[in-house]
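If I may wish for something, please sit down with the protein I am sending here and say whether C-alpha cells and residues agree:
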Amino acid sequence: MEQIILLIGFCLASYSVIANDAIQTLGTFISSNIKRPWWVLWLFAGSILTATLLLGWYINNGDVAYGRLDEIPYPENINWWYVLPPLILLVVTQFGLPVSTTFLVLSVFSSTQVIEKMLLKSVIGYSVAFAFAIGVYFIIAKYTEIEKVDNKDKKLHWRWEALQWISTSWLWIQWLVQDFANIYVFLPRELSLNYLLLSLGFMLLVVGLVFKMGGGKIQKVVTQKTNTENIRSATIIDLVYAVVLFVFTVVNPIPMSTTWVFIGILAGREFAIMLRHDKKAVKIARKKVMFDLYKVNAGLIISILVAFVIRYFN
C-alpha cells in the first residue's frame, strides 16, 4: 500500500511541479518559438532532462536530487495524506497561480529547521534576483527591450536563436538540479534502475504535454510581461535567471523556491524597463510586481497550512 501511495505522490508531483515550475524556465522559450512544432521543442527539452537525470543518478550513487534531499530523510511511515500537497498544487496550477512548489511539497517532509532554511534562502533569492535584474536591465533595456531583432536579417536572427537555445539549455539544467528534489522526495534517496527509467519515462510524457498545451495557464505570467515574445528578450531573461540559480546552487544544497527567484527577475525587469523608457508607467509595473508577489505568498500560506494539517494527522 505504501508503494502505491508513493507512486501516486510521485506522479502527481511530477505533473504539478513541471506544469507549474517549468514555465519559469521554458515559458520564454515557448513564447518566442510559438511557430515551431511543439514536438521539436519537446525533443530538445526532453533530451536535456534525460541527460541531467541520468548524470545525477550515476555520479551521486542513485541520488538524482543532487544532494538537495540530504536534510530531508525518507519518511518511515507513509500515509495517504502525503499525496495531498501535489494534489493541491495540481488544483492550484489550474487557476494559473505560480505558487512555490518547494514549500508546498517539501514542507510536509521537512523539519521546522529545514523549512526555515528554505524560506530564508528563497527570500534572499528573490531579493538578489530583483536587484540583479534591475541593474542588468537598466543598462541594457534601451537596446534590447524596445528595438526589435529584424527578422529580415537572417544572420542576426539566427545568432540570437542559437544563443537562446544555449541559454535555455543551461537554465533548464539549473532548474532541474534544483527541482528534482520536489519530485523525487516521494521515492527512495538511492534510486534503483527500474525506478529511474519508469520515472524518466513519465516525466518525459509530462514535459511533452506541457509543450503540447503551449505552456498552459501559468504561461500567462510570462506573456503578460513586456516584450517576452521577442527572442532577444527571452534569451536575456533566461541568462539572468540561469546565473542567479547557478549562484544559489553553488552556495549550499538546501532546496529553495525557484518560483520566488523567477518572480524576482520579472519584477526587477519590469521596473527597469519602465524607469528606462516610461517613468510614468512605474505605477503599472508596481501593480504587476505586487500581484505576482501576492500570488507566491498565497502559495506559501497554503503550503504552511497543508504541512500543519498533515502533521496533525501524524
